[in-house]
C-alpha cells in the first residue's frame, strides 16, 4: 500500500471510529507483481494491514476504496 494512501485510509478509519457503534477495518489487496520487480522499482515495504478476502467483503456493511494510480488508471489487482 502506498504510504500516502495508507495515511489517508488511517485518517478515514479514525473519523469512522468516532461514530458510535462503528468498527472500521483497514485492509489491503495482495500485490501481484514479482518481488524482484518491486525491488528494482524501489517499491515501499508492504503495510501491516491484513490482506482482504472475498469473505471480508461479504461481511462488511459499507466500503471506502482507495487506489494508487499509474497514468490515471487504478492498480492492476483491482
From TrEMBL:
Belongs to the WrbA family. It comes from Brassica napus. Signal peptide: none annotated. This is BnaA02g26490D protein. InterPro entries: Flavoprotein-like_sf (IPR029039). It comes from the Eukaryota. PANTHER family: FLAVODOXIN-RELATED PROTEIN WRBA-RELATED (PTHR30546), NAD(P)H DEHYDROGENASE (QUINONE) FQR1-LIKE 1-RELATED (PTHR30546:SF46).
